[in-house]
Amino acid sequence: MFDKSVYTGRRDRLKKELKSGIVLFLGNVDAAFNYPANQYHFRQDSNFSYFFGLDNPGFAGVIDVDNNKDYIFGNDVDIDDIIWMGVQPFVKDIAAQVGIENSFPYNDLAGFINKTISEGRKVHFLPPYRGETVIELSALLNIPNAEVKPAASVDLIKAVVKLREVKDDNEIAEIEKALLTAYYMHTTSMKMAMPGVVEQDIAGTIEGISLALTGPISFPVILSVDGQTLHNHSHHNVLKEGRMMVTDAGSETALHYASDITRTVPVGGKFNVRQAEIYQI
User: Fold this and answer.
1) What does the record list as GO biological process (predicted)?
2) 87 and 160 together in one domain
3) CB 142 within 8 A of CB 118
4) Among 46, 67, 122, 234, which is most exposed with the fewest C-beta within 10 angstroms?
5) Helices 131-141 and 108-118 sit at what angle, rounded to 10 degrees?
6) Measured between alpha carbons, how far is 87 from 83 in angstroms, rounded to an integer?
């Protein structure tokens, strides 16, 4: 993570933009692959990460604009977790790493939100994109699932966009890391685009480059000679002379800054006359 001053500064700037109320950021939770203990790679919510910097599943962050206080709600690990992962830091110590002094068990969040609503203060939150987040917001705010997205705070959306659209030097450095990895991914893809090669071989190779150099791919690799189908995730084709191959791929850093680059190349490494003419359009 960045220095804690980065996150305290971001939260302070958000308070100035909103003027009143509280801001609720629900971090993402673990998602089971095919049974509870076999989970997908955890990816934190980007906005939670931006303001709180913590990659722990099941956390919630609250920014109290009226009282100039920040909170983390999350549970300390239990003995079952310790058996698998070893001794882990307490939530209060994790929160302190990003400049937050107030931490409470996750179950205390509902009471905190209820008290805020009873005081007539606004609860700002962003539109959720995960079903479990919709359900959790519905329970916390006591509104039907279908009303959660329409109730998202427009003022918060505008404030977050205003803050996040301007990148500081730390962020630019992270983006450049992701771009450098994407360079190696795409140049490798170009070199491998030879007749007789299966698309999956190339897609798997460049995903491995991302994992080895930076971190997970920033989205599922799109690599195909059937580029006329947008977001084509099928990689079954065998490359043939005369075809064009599109690669749309990028990498993500540990701090969740990403690259996203698309390139189209001729199979075999050289454009024929027709391909070259079309490529220049």
Assistant:
1) proteolysis
2) yes
3) no
4) 67
5) 50
6) 8
